[in-house]
Hints:
Layout: E1 2-5, H1 18-26, H2 43-48, E2 49-52, E3 74-77, E4 85-88, E5 91-92, E6 97-100, E7 125-131, E8 147-152, E9 164-174, E10 179-189, E11 193-204, E12 207-208, E13 214-215, E14 220-233, E15 236-250, E16 258-273, E17 281-296, E18 305-306, E19 312-313, E20 317-335, E21 338-357, E22 360-385, E23 390-404, E24 410-411, H3 415-430, E25 435-451, E26 454-465, H4 469-473, E27 490-491, E28 499-511, E29 515-534, H5 539-552, H6 556-559, E30 569-588, E31 593-606, E32 620-628, E33 633-642, E34 660-672, E35 675-682, E36 722-730
Parallel strand pairs: 1-25, 6-8, 27-30
Antiparallel strand pairs: 2-7, 3-4, 4-5, 7-8, 9-10, 9-36, 10-11, 11-14, 12-13, 14-15, 15-16, 16-17, 17-20, 18-19, 20-21, 21-22, 22-23, 22-24, 23-25, 25-26, 26-28, 28-29, 29-30, 30-31, 31-32, 32-33, 33-34, 34-35, 35-36
Amino acid sequence: MHTHFHPSSAISRSSLTLASLIIFSSIAIAEDSTPIINVEDTAIERANTVTVKPLEQDYIPADAADTLKSVPGANVNKNGPLTGIAQYRGMFGSRINTQLDGLNVAPAGPNWMDPPLSHLPTSQMESITVIRGISPVSAGAESIGGSINAKTAKQPYSEVGEARPHGSFTSGYESNNNAYSVGGQLGGSSASDRLQLNGNLDKGQAMQAGNGLDILPTQYQRRTFGADYGHRFSAGEFSLGYNNERVDNSGSPALPMDIIYVKGNAFSAAFNSDRASNGIQWFADAHYMDTDHNMDNYSLRTPPAMLGMGGRLMQRFALTNAKDIGYKLHAIIPVNSGSITVGTDGWLAKHQADVFDPTNAAFSLQNYNNVKRNRFSLFTEWKGSLSDSLEIQTGVRYSRVNMSSGTVSTSGFAGMMATAINTLATNFNASQRSQNDNLIDISLLLTQTVNDNLKVTFGAARKQRAPSYQERYLWSPLESTAGLADKRTYVGDVNLNPETSYNVDLGLEWKSDAIYFTPRLFFKRVNNYIQGTASTTGPAYNFRVMQGNMLKGAGFCTANPLDPFCVPLQFSNVDADMYGADAGFGANITDHISVDGTISYVRGKRRDITDNLYRIAPLNSTIGLSYYGDADWSVTAEGNFFGKQDKVSSTNAESKTAGYSLFNLHGRYALSRNMAISAGVNNVLDRFYQDHLSGYNRITTDAAGRASAVATGTRLPGEGRNFFVQAHATF
């Protein structure tokens, strides 16, 4: 057993405008297409959170992660239509503390084909909240890159003496990929009990780029159903939940395989207390999730040909499973001028992934075998006032991460490749596969209220993250890397150290009756940042050279030993810096016209060598001009602007991207207090563009033989012109 301890180691767009507030006060459903600031108890929380309510937007995307694009500093890595991975200020994936209803969830796919936010369809989502800047320790463990929490919509309790039905219905159609979505909730409640049934269906065909050609395969199908029960009594509220999810035949052209199915069951329980006589409040949550995943490279696409073996197709499929348990128990204790929160939480996950050849029953490879990653955490945090105008939130968290892997084996290889892959398995099995990491997070947030219009925020923190199971236990050169999608093969390192980041954040929140501006500056110094580095010797490299020769033919890797295709990357500890700025802004031009927007910039670079970090969003901005009619309709013209990204990672052989601009036109009309329809067109000019956060195309032809419009190895283009119509109703 080896142990590490490292002590050193928009404001919403349009939502604040006077006109939109008038609309919302008169017609609750007629909100505009932009996020709403989460209203909390303190100035610190008001200044440091942004909340998006998807069902109150003009356009409701199928992938819930896409709603993050309206938050300053936030963005999305895309490998397929339902595979959005949250990015915040240059960090993404497991560096972001992404939660569903306050708890982390484990993707079943080792390549994050089912990232956390994909498990909650937008039709079932009440809100998604991003903590701007530094996360307080109470937000969760391993929040080195930030914290995001998506909240499931719950039907309300009725008034005392009433028993009545409740429900909601959401539907939509999109022209670009002939997509439709239908979702809703149906239930009833009294003053003390509520019960609801949930259901959702999303289905779409191949997406078209701005040149009108299909991007293959990008079809998708997802359905969910579930139930939720709540009981309210004198001490608080207790609730139980169940959700069943099924995703079928969904493409992910930036990854080596497509989704054949993701199917799983999730169970949850929660208790939130009212304040006791001594003022203490308790919050307890728990969930259990069990998800199976089947993926392959031949059902939706043509598999790659092995040119070194006469052009025979290399067909592969993988069966994976993830089981996880999450829990938390927090208590808020009132003290003079504030409160102290103490708590414990944990996340226990188990992963299995096996690869097979449908044409050769003798072939098998244990990608990840009986991998366990268990995290246990304790924290305490004080939130209070240092003066009438200065608020503080500070705390410390200790986390213990225990990781282990079973031994691995493989069969079906021949000759020198068998020798090389067996050597890798033997070396891995002989390594120290049980690893423990001790993590310490410290955070400090200050908010100074200067006057009624201006607040100044300052944050500083030390944050840590233990390696992911992919970074530690990927033993053979493969691409199962939590969705990195950089065309490179990787191997892990069981002896990786945790990442340690020292963060500083400085911001303003200035708003008057007509104008708001919320700029932030940030800097992160990350020691032991985990990044792939070239492995040009040893058994992993030797195996990859032979594999590359088999795929490319004519001794390609022997003749080109340093070609990125032939050189695996090994997850390694390096040093990095990230810094930048982001802001939300807006103004009421007249009682009926407003302009609102965001702007974000982040720079990520290595400190140990001269290189840039991989998959960093370029300078980008969104600006919307809205007109509000007679309290029941609105129209918004929106521009999305992206700069070029030429500061790319040479280590990852990352491609540069050009800048581009997109224009969208949306409208919304409230038919009543409880029903609204929206319609519009995204990418009005049918612009062809490549989003820097999209992966690279892996497809030559789909399974039906249709040629992809995107050259293999080039970055996937974004969606072309898309007309949509959507409706939402409640009762």
